[in-house]
Every structure is written in structure tokens, then in C-alpha cells.
Write a structure and sequence with these properties.
This protein is an alpha+beta fold. It folds into four domains: 60 residues, Winged helix-like DNA-binding domain superfamily/Winged helix DNA-binding domain (Arc Repressor Mutant, subunit A, Orthogonal Bundle), CATH 1.10.10; 48 residues; 95 residues, SH3 type barrels (Roll); 82 residues, no CATH class. Helices cover 42% and strands 24% of the residues. It has twelve helices and eleven strands. Strands 6-5-4-3-7 form a five-stranded antiparallel sheet.
């Protein structure tokens, strides 16, 4: 076996709670006693609290407080876990407290030199995130558990800011974090189809006694992306949109998550996209208006008229306030 395998084997033997001598460990694993000494030294260097008692009834054991097996991660792996935890907290990960305990445990079971190195690396990356919402965290936990255990939920859902709240039973298939928002992809028993729901628009929820089985191979991520970004199999007609503008604004549009995949042609101050008609006259005008005078819609003409109508309606609205 490799040295790492020997170290793990020794660790699990000691975790049984029985004090064992080096010779007993060597006999159990069928390795040389000198190999045991080297592995014990390596375990101690990695932060494992191995206690060595001398005397007739002596041997090796673990501290009682060491309840979990240590993770044999090098500095880069430890740094990656700490940085990943920072991003997870920014996303509103539903098990934030458990994540903090795990990181604290990772730091606790490492030696002083490794801990100092890890803290230096940890301070080199920070993520700004809003204060955690206890309510959102509890909803995410309920949805995640229901998806994992196949339990149907009854939710009160508000589809829009001014929409009425409707109640429906859903079979949660999976959570997806997308563009700073959480979605639950679920089979809606009211509409009798798979849909995506914004988690922050779930006003209330209750457990039911019903259960379900998620379709084999189903991906909540792929469903949500397909719903947001129609693929080539869409039956809706496509149309060409030509825009002109400042190079920085053009570049920003070309890298936008909703437009990048529709890019046909571009230059420094000109770009051409191919999008569905429904998107061109619903979401796209609002996006382009956000760029102000940095972007100009060349064609189609109805897109320009749509943008002008939206701008006029907004101006009229604010003039009446």
C-alpha cells in the first residue's frame, strides 16, 4: 500500500478507541514497524492529535475530542475549500452554519504552520455578499430536503410583483443558483408540467403526505438553461437584430449571458444578433434602454419603435407623479 493508504489505515484503527502499540499496528496491517513510526510522524505533522503513552500498557491513541477523520489536504486544496466556502456564502448557501463549522474543523485539525499559511491565503480573497436571510435559508433547506427525499410540497407562490398569490402542489426536482437568484425546478401539479420557480417568491409552504420519483437523468440546471436560452430546436422564428454603439457597450453586449450565444457578426462599433421574435420585442428593448445613448438599434424598425414607446410611457408615468 502507499504511504497515504497506510496512514488512513492506522487512523481508522486508532479511531476504534483502543490504544495500540506500533508492533500491534504493524501486525494488523502487515507492514514493518518502522513504516508505522513514519506514518505516525506524518499524521502528527498533518495535524492529527495522536497521543503516545509510554510504559507497559502504553501505545498510540487519539484525543477524545477528535471525533471526525481528518482530511488529508495539502495547502492548495485547503485554500480551495476555504475560497469555495466564501463564494457559497455569497450565493446564500442554505447550510451556511454547517459550512462554517466544517471550515472551522478544517482549521482546527491542522498544525500551527499550516494554519498560518492557510490564513494568509484566505485573506487574499474576499467576497462581498448581502446579509443572510434566515427565511430564504429555511425555504432553501426545505426545498433541498424535499428534492432529495422525493416529498411533495404545497406552496403559495407569487409569479410577479403585482400578481396574485396562488397555491399549488409541486414535486421539487432540484435547486439552481443563477445570476444571484435561487430557482427550484419542479413538476407543478396545478399546470401539469415541469416549471421553474423563483425561491424568493415562495410566500409560504407546507409538507404533504405525497411523494414522487424524479425522472431518471433529469438535470434541473439543463432545464433552466433551456428555458432561459432557447436552443436550435425552438419552433419560434428567428430574426436579425443589428446594433451600433460605443465599442465598450458593444463588447459588453457580446459577453452578456442572454445574448452571447446569439452573436452572428461583430466589429468594434457594430454587432448583429439572431434572436427569437418574442425576445426581441419583450426583454431585449428593456436591456438596450439600460445603455442609454451608448447603443443604437439600427434594425428591425419595429424594435426601434418598441423602445421609443417604452421610453415615452416611462416619461409620461414620471411626469404624472
Amino acid at each position: 500500500m502507499s504511504k497515504a493508504d497506510n496512514m488512513l489505515s492506522i487512523l481508522w484503527l486508532l479511531k476504534k478507541g483502543k490504544r495500540m502499540t506500533a508492533q500491534q499496528l504493524a501486525d494488523e496491517l502487515e507492514i514493518h514497524v518502522r513504516t508505522v513510526y513514519r506514518c505516525i510522524d506524518a499524521l502528527c505533522a498533518s495535524g492529527v492529535p495522536v497521543v503516545a503513552d509510554a510504559g507497559h500498557h502504553g501505545g498510540y491513541s487519539l484525543l477524545e475530542s477528535f471525533n471526525e477523520a481528518p482530511l488529508f489536504f495539502d495547502l492548495e486544496e485547503q485554500t480551495a475549500l476555504v475560497h469555495a466556502a466564501a463564494f457559497a456564502q455569497q450565493a446564500g448557501y442554505p447550510y451556511g452554519e454547517a459550512l462554517e463549522r466544517a471550515i472551522a474543523k478544517l482549521k482546527r485539525y491542522t498544525n500551527e504552520e499550516q494554519l498560518h499559511a492557510l490564513e494568509r491565503r484566505e485573506s487574499g480573497l474576499e467576497v462581498i455578499h448581502p446579509p443572510a436571510s434566515p427565511r430564504l435559508e429555511s425555504v432553501l433547506q426545505v426545498l433541498e430536503q424535499s428534492a432529495a427525499e422525493g416529498l411533495t410540497l404545497r406552496i403559495a407562490y407569487q409569479s410577479g410583483y403585482e400578481s396574485d398569490v396562488t397555491e399549488r402542489n409541486i414535486d421539487p426536482y432540484g435547486l439552481v443558483h443563477w445570476k444571484s437568484a435561487w430557482y427550484i425546478v419542479a413538476y407543478c401539479r396545478l399546470r401539469r408540467e415541469i416549471r421553474s420557480f423563483r425561491v424568493d417568491r415562495i410566500r409560504d409552504w407546507t409538507h404533504t403526505e405525497e411523494s414522487f420519483e424524479r425522472p431518471g437523468g433529469f438535470s434541473a440546471r439543463q432545464f433552466l438553461l433551456k428555458d432561459l436560452l432557447p436552443g436550435p430546436e425552438t419552433q419560434e422564428a428567428l430574426m436579425t437584430v443589428r446594433l451600433e454603439g460605443q465599442p465598450q457597450a458593444i463588447n459588453d453586449l457580446c459577453h452578456h449571458w442572454l445574448l452571447g450565444h446569439t452573436l452572428v457578426e461583430r466589429s468594434a462599433d457594430h454587432v448583429q444578433f439572431q434572436v427569437t421574435e418574442s425576445y426581441a420585442y419583450t426583454r431585449l428593448p428593456y436591456m438596450l434602454l439600460g445603455y442609454g445613448g451608448s447603443i443604437f438599434a439600427v434594425e428591425p424598425l419595429p424594435l426601434k419603435e418598441c423602445m421609443a414607446g417604452i421610453a415615452s410611457a416611462l416619461a409620461e408615468y414620471y411626469e404624472t407623479l
